[in-house]
Design brief:
This protein has 254 residues and is α/β, with parallel strands linked by helices. The chain is 44% helix and 13% strand. Helix 1 (16-27) crosses helix 6 (203-216), helix 3 (62-75) runs parallel beside helix 4 (102-127) and helix 4 (102-127) packs parallel to helix 5. The N and C termini lie far apart (41 Å).
Length: 254
C-alpha cells in the first residue's frame, strides 16, 4: 500500500484506532472518508481535519450497509483503500443462571456480518483500481482469547481465518489484503477505563508504529503487527498459549 495519494474509507472512524488512523492517513496526503453511527462525532472529526468527509451509517444494519455501499461507489468511484475497522466488544457470563446473548448477537453482526457485507459490496470498486488495499482490524485476541469476552475474541479469530482465505482468492487481482491485529490499546473499546489503563499500549504510540510499518512495507503474510502484539501471534507456537490465557482471565478478576 502506498502511504499517500489514496482515496480511503475508514469505518469506525470517529474514535479509537479508527479515528487515529484516519487522521494519520489524512495528514499523509490521502483523501479520507470516515464512517460512524453518530453524526455529531463525524462532524467533530471532519471539522478538525479539513478535507476529510464523514458519512453516517449503522454497520449493524444490513439494509443500511447496502445503501451506504452504493452511496460510496457513486461518490467515490476512485476508492482504492477500505479500512474495515468498526467493531464492538462485550462480555458474556456463561456461568449465569440465565445467559443474555443480546450483546453477543450484536457483536457477531457488527464484527463479522457487517465487515463481510461491506467488503463484498466494495470489492468490485477496489478491483477496478490499478492498485488497491483491503484492511480489516482484528485483534491479538484472534490468537489467544480473552475468556470474559469469548464472542468478541471469536469474531476476531473468524476474521483472521476469512482474511487468509480471501487473500488467496484475490492473489491475482489488484487487491492487497491486510490484517491489522492490535494489542491491548488505550481506547474506550472495552469501556472508559481502558483509555487510561497503564497495561494498554498508548494509542499514539500504536498509530505511529502502524504508519511506520505501512511506510516501510514491512509486512509479512499480510499481517500488520506492532512489536507488542507479536508474542500473542506466536503464543501457540512458542508454548505460551496457556500462560496468556491464564493471564487474561486474571486481568478480569482484578
Amino acid at each position: 500500500m502506498n502511504i499517500s495519494g489514496n482515496t480511503i474509507l475508514v469505518t469506525g472512524g470517529t474514535s479509537g484506532i479508527g479515528r487515529a488512523l484516519a487522521e494519520a492517513l489524512h495528514s499523509k496526503g490521502n483523501r479520507v472518508i470516515i464512517a460512524g453511527r453518530r453524526q455529531a462525532l463525524l462532524d467533530e472529526v471532519t471539522g478538525r481535519n479539513p478535507g476529510m468527509v464523514g458519512i453516517a451509517v449503522d454497520l449493524s444494519d444490513t439494509v443500511a450497509i447496502a445503501k451506504f455501499a452504493e452511496s460510496v461507489k457513486r461518490q467515490f468511484p476512485e476508492l482504492n483503500v477500505l479500512v474495515n475497522n468498526a467493531g464492538i466488544a462485550g462480555l458474556e457470563d456463561y456461568t449465569a443462571e440465565s445467559i443474555d446473548l443480546t450483546r453477543a448477537y450484536s457483536t457477531i453482526q457488527t464484527n463479522i456480518t457487517g465487515v463481510v457485507q461491506l467488503s463484498a459490496a466494495l470489492l468490485p470498486t477496489l478491483r477496478a483500481q490499478p492498485k488497491s488495499t483491503l484492511i480489516v482490524t482484528t485483534s491479538g485476541l484472534a490468537f489467544v482469547p480473552f475468556p470474559p469476552g469469548p464472542v468478541y475474541s471469536a469474531t476476531k479469530a473468524f476474521m483472521h481465518n476469512w482474511l487468509d482465505a480471501i487473500r488467496v482468492q484475490l492473489k491475482k487481482t489488484s487487491v492487497e489484503v491486510l490484517e491489522l491485529a492490535p494489542p491491548y490499546v488505550q481506547t474506550e473499546l472495552g469501556g472508559p477505563q481502558q483509555a487510561s489503563d497503564p497495561r494498554a499500549m498508548p494509542l499514539e504510540d500504536y498509530t505511529s508504529e502502524v504508519i511506520q510499518i505501512l511506510e516501510s512495507n514491512d509486512i509479512e503474510k499480510g499481517e500488520i503487527l506492532v512489536q507488542r502484539v507479536k508474542p500473542l501471534r506466536t503464543a501457540e507456537r512458542d508454548g505460551k498459549y496457556q500462560e496468556f490465557l491464564d493471564m487474561f482471565a486474571g486481568m478480569h478478576d482484578e
